[in-house]
Amino acid sequence: MRIRATATAAVVLGTVALSALAAPAAQAAPAAGPKVTFSNVKIGKTLVVGASGRASFPVTYTVTKPASLSAKSFASGPAIYRGATIAKPSDLFVSENPGTCKAPSATVLNCTASLVFNVTDGDLINSESGAWKVGGVAVNVSKDGLTWQGDLGSTKLLRQAKLTTDAAPEPVKKGRTITVKGTLTRANWETNKYAGYGAQTVQLQYKKAGAKTWTTLKSVKTTAKGTLSTTVKATADGYYRYNFVATSTTGAVASAADYVDVR
């Protein structure tokens, strides 16, 4: 989540983390937090977010603490961030709520949490897609104090893509030409809509009826509006689809398959 001035008590973890970590350099360093360390953080390699609504991604992590430190005295959660230092609020996303933890021993907590992006409310802008680092935050519950640990992993925050395929005519005589059209769009986090993704290379793939694997027939480039069109010769009954490989800002997607009956 992106912390705002209207944050409620439920997101105090993120509020405290943001106010402390993204503070101006001249400001005093935050008070010492709980003596904990983070490890074994597991988060998706890619976090693909659509044009609107809320997107939630589970995260698991381990907290190691002194046996004398009560688990109820602090709250913890995962974060993603950009840069060597967190210079501004847009460089940091913190879990919406503190993690839920179980204690297999007096010194170890196994925790689960979620990173939530509310796109409709303006959590994301398009320039924030790309590579992010993973960190962990812990704050004292009843007093000031924050513990931050970075370099716990990496992930990619990507704009969702959508892709269509329409092969025609159906049915078609063997040896005749099939025209395969489609459109590649991707999420615009600022308008909350999907727009054509131009100048992108997309694979046209074919799977013969009864087969299990797809074969790439050719590569096709989208127009400025994201549209696709190419032709192939009809050989046998089978399925056609377009397949888009992820870029540094946009997630991968394969269209639904379109079956063509060849007679």
Automatic annotation (TrEMBL):
Keywords in alphabetical order: Signal
Keyword check for Signal: yes
Check the UniProt entry and state the signal peptide residues, or none.
1-28
Q: Which domain of life is it from?
A: Bacteria
Its protein name is Calcium-binding protein
Q: Which species is this UniProt entry from?
A: Streptomyces niveiscabiei
